């Protein structure tokens, strides 16, 4: 385990965790190129929680995040609360991303980039695509019901080490 | 029209649009939570900008989030518009030589934009 946190995130937390990786990962012998990919990936993933995560019963954005490493991969896991009404939209988007090969994903990225529509929260639909492109892996996900309206949305992806470094 | 100078922040780049010295740079990292808000002043400034000479825009970003990628594209589209009015602005897109992703972002902009974009490996 390299980092883990649960509870609400401030923008300062996001920056703090990202910058800490710049210190911790070189000490583990991780190359700069992979560190930059991980940095960018967790910025997208954690800002996504801040933008779209719903609040729990205590009025705070309930969420968790961790990044762990073994000899072969980094695994990055995030979870946040979402309303049942957005599950289909999220699932459709992630399923589409997972169905695309590298070329197809790039095409989808370019279409979304040039479309340039932004949501009221400032997002532009590139977040999940960017996470998948940075990870170079599928996005595993699950939804678990918390009550009649809200679900826990968990997402994980792996960044392979060996392929990149050998 | 006055120059636009923004100091580098923890998640925002240094911006220098210095009219008197003809220096135009965006440098540092860009992952503000609300990129649309951060870049709105820059886009407003460009809406009023009419260059008197040919000039280069130097963009050198170490980190760039997906929402900032869209905002930088909006800057480039403003430059496209200025160029369409008979001016000659080119962009130097600087990237770390070992950062393939940043190079690809520059290549993406080349495909989308009519403005000349030079990719420069540091």
Features:
heterodimer, A: 166 residues, alpha+beta, Heat Shock Protein 90, 5-stranded antiparallel β-sheet, 49% helix, globular, B: alpha/beta, Transcription Regulator spoIIAA, 6-stranded mixed β-sheet, 3 helices
Description:
The complex is a heterodimer of chains A (166) and B (122). Chain A is globular and about 45 Å long. Chain A has a 5-stranded antiparallel β-sheet with strand order 1-2-3-5-4. The longest helix of chain A is centred in the first third of the chain and has 21 residues, at 32-52. With 166 residues, chain A is α+β, with helices and mostly antiparallel strands. Helices cover 49% and strands 23% of the residues of chain A. In chain A, strand 2 (63-69) and strand 3 form a beta hairpin. Chain A has one domain: Histidine kinase-like ATPase, C-terminal domain (Heat Shock Protein 90), CATH 3.30.565.10. By secondary structure, chain B is an alpha/beta fold. Chain B has one domain (4-121): Transcription Regulator spoIIAA (2-Layer Sandwich), CATH 3.30.750. Chain B is 37% helix and 32% strand. Chain B is built from 3 helices and 6 strands; from the N terminus they run βββαβαβαβ. Chain B has helices at 35-47, 66-84, 100-112; strands at residues 4-6, 14-18, 23-30, 55-64, 89-95, 116-121. Chain B has a 6-stranded mixed β-sheet, with helices on one face. The longest helix of chain B has 19 residues, at 66-84. The mean pLDDT of chain B is 95. The A-B interface holds A 11, 14-15, 32-33, 36-37, 39-40, 43-44, 47, 50-51, 110, 113-114, 116, 118, 122-124, 126-127, 129-130, 133-134 and B 10-11, 31, 33-37, 63-67, 69-70, 73-74, 96, 98-101, 108, 111-112.
């Amino acid at each position: 385990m390299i980092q883990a946190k649960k509870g609400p995130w401030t923008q300062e937390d996001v920056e703090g965790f990202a910058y800490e990786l710049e210190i911790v990962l070189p000490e583990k012998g991780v190359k700069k190129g992979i560190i930059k990919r991980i940095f960018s990936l967790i910025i997208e993933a954690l800002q996504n929680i801040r933008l779209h995560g719903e609040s729990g019963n205590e009025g705070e954005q309930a969420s968790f995040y961790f990044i762990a490493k073994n000899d072969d991969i980094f695994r990055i896991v995030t979870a946040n609360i979402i309303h049942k009404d957005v599950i289909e939209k999220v699932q459709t988007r992630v399923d589409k991303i997972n169905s695309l090969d590298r070329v197809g994903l790039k095409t989808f990225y370019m279409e979304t980039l040039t479309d340039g529509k932004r949501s009221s929260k400032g997002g532009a639909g590139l977040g999940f695509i960017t996470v998948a492109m940075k990870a170079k892996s599928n996005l595993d996900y699950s939804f678990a019901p918390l009550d009649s309206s809200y679900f826990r949305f968990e997402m994980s992806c792996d960044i392979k080490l060996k392929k990149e470094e050998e | 029209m006055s120059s636009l100078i923004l100091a580098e922040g923890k998640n925002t780049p240094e911006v220098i649009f210095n009219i008197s010295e003809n220096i135009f740079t965006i440098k540092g990292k860009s992952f503000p939570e609300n990129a649309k808000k951060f870049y709105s002043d820059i886009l407003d400034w460009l809406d009023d900008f009419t260059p008197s000479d040919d000039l280069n825009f130097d963009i050198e970003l170490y980190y760039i989030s997906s929402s900032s990628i869209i905002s930088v594209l909006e800057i480039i589209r403003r430059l496209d518009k200025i160029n369409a009015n008979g001016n000659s602005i080119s962009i130097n897109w600087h990237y770390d030589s070992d950062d393939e992703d940043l190079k690809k972002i520059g290549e993406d902009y080349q495909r989308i934009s009519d403005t000349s974009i030079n990719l420069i490996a540091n």
